[in-house]
Specification:
Blueprint: H1 18-38, E1 44-48, E2 51-58, H2 72-94, H3 100-123, E3 126-134, E4 137-138, H4 144-162, H5 164-173
Antiparallel strand pairs: 1-2, 2-3, 3-4
Helix pairs in contact: 1-3, 2-3, 3-4, 4-5
């Protein structure tokens, strides 16, 4: 995309989805507040045979990566989240509104990243509370922000394989 193709107004860009990012941050922070206000740390409420609400803290990244490193990882992951969020925000501003799937993907990822960034900077950890499992195997607990990031990443993968740019690449290869 050239500078001439960059939308002149933010309303004509991916930023038209600002409301989605705000809604995700609000939903994420509200659900985390509900868990912290109503559940003791490490408590569990069984809701379905494969799903519990839990109250846990994640001091690391995905799957508690580096959670036992003594505190430096808080600022490391904060810096990474700020850098990635900045890049995604710039990409959203530069993309035309018509790039629907990519814009939704970036908006979901950015909203989720900001939700977890708020926790990490305010608390030093991320509050997780959704626990899915089969038998004794438990998927690592996660939250609304994590869900948005995963859905956004899935949309990006879909766009890469089946979106307009993938179709254009197929036409050019012939």
């Amino acid at each position: 995309m050239t500078a001439a193709q960059t939308p002149k107004r933010w309303q004509e860009s991916g930023w038209h989805l600002w409301w989605l990012m705000v809604a995700l941050v609000v939903a994420d922070q509200f659900t985390k507040w509900l868990v912290v206000a109503n559940m003791d740390l490490f408590s569990r409420i069984n809701l379905l045979p494969f799903f519990d609400l839990v109250h846990v803290r994640n001091y690391g990244a995905a799957f508690s990566f580096l959670s036992d490193q003594g505190g430096w990882q808080r600022w490391f992951f904060t810096a990474i989240a700020i850098a990635i969020s900045t890049v995604i925000a710039v990409l959203l501003r530069r993309q035309p509104k018509a790039m629907t799937t990519a814009n939704w993907a970036f908006a979901l990822i950015l909203g989720g990243a900001l939700g977890n960034l708020i926790d990490r900077t305010r608390l030093g950890y991320v509050v997780d509370f959704l626990d899915f499992y089969v038998g004794s195997y438990h998927w690592p607990a996660f939250n609304v922000a994590d869900s948005a990031i995963v859905i956004g990443a899935g949309l990006m993968i879909y766009e890469g394989f089946f979106g307009q740019s993938a179709k254009d690449a197929g036409k050019n290869a012939k």
